[in-house]
Amino acid sequence: MIPAPLASRHLPAVAAIETAQLPSPISLRELHEMASRPGFRGFVTLPSADADPLGYALVLAGGGAADLVSVAVAPAALRRGVATRLLLYVFDALATEGVEELCLEVAIDNAPARALYDRLKFVEVGRRPGYYRRDRELIDALVMRRVL
Known about the structure:
Number of strands: 7
CATH topology: Aminopeptidase
Number of domains: 1
Strand order of the largest sheet: 1-2-3-4-5-7-6
CATH superfamily: Gcn5-related N-acetyltransferase (GNAT)
Structural class: alpha+beta
Largest sheet: 7 strands, mixed
Distance between the termini: 23 Å
Strand content: 35-45%
């Protein structure tokens, strides 16, 4: 597995993973718009240099801090360490740019993601009541932060 910066050719595969894995996926059009922002940083894990990504992380950075907007792994690549390796690469890349902390929101009931973030030394710094909507239910988000 090869962690790498996201290229525009990766965006359709990222959109497909978003759709397969997340309840409110970012559309391909929205991904293109996000990628045009000055603070955007995208990262992927590739099985080989010319293959589609197995996973991705989307970050908005500025002023020494960054927000992890979205991270996901293709269904066929789950539980193989893709997200862990990718996020370790993201931490190093952002730290090299002078980013000092990375923040994220995660649904309180997303046990696999919370376990990953705990292993990677993110700490809870707040809660957003009713942040996510699933069907007719509102789910709280934990706000987490990791010092790089």
